[in-house]
Design a protein that fits this description.
This protein is mainly alpha-helical. Helix content is 51%, strand content 0%. The model has no long low-confidence stretch (mean pLDDT 86).
Length: 122
């Protein structure tokens, strides 16, 4: 009798994975994945698409872990969420985005450390 498998099968199989260049790139990828999930899309491998070394949920869990440790606050997560959905980072030259830009940089810096340890960011 075979054992029941509780872990979903990976899409990547034997394909080499390509880590993200930056945590910012990983965050925007996560945000896009969340948008299409809400629209009802299912994940399936696309021919010719680069295979990522993680699931979108891994990036979410990294952010939540930083929140639990007190390294990210509510405002950090709000800025990540707002500008992640917008698809662009806040512009520090714009007076109304000066504070969000500072929070964004702090959050991305802290995410970079965690995501590099996991091999998600190069």
């Amino acid at each position: 009798m075979t054992a029941t498998r509780f872990v979903p099968r990976s899409f990547c199989g034997d394909s080499p994975t390509q880590p993200f260049a930056t945590a910012e790139e990983a965050w925007f990828w996560f945000a896009r994945c969340q948008i299409v999930r809400r629209q009802g899309a299912r994940f399936a491998p696309l021919p010719g698409a680069s295979v990522r070394p993680c699931d979108p949920d891994d990036i979410y869990r990294a952010a939540v872990s930083l929140k639990r440790k007190g390294l990210l606050g509510r405002r950090h997560l709000a800025v990540l969420g707002h500008f992640g959905v917008s698809g662009r980072p806040p512009d520090p030259r714009c007076p109304e985005e000066e504070v969000p830009a500072r929070l964004w940089e702090q959050a991305i810096d802290r995410l970079t450390t965690v995501l590099q340890e996991k091999g998600i960011v190069a």
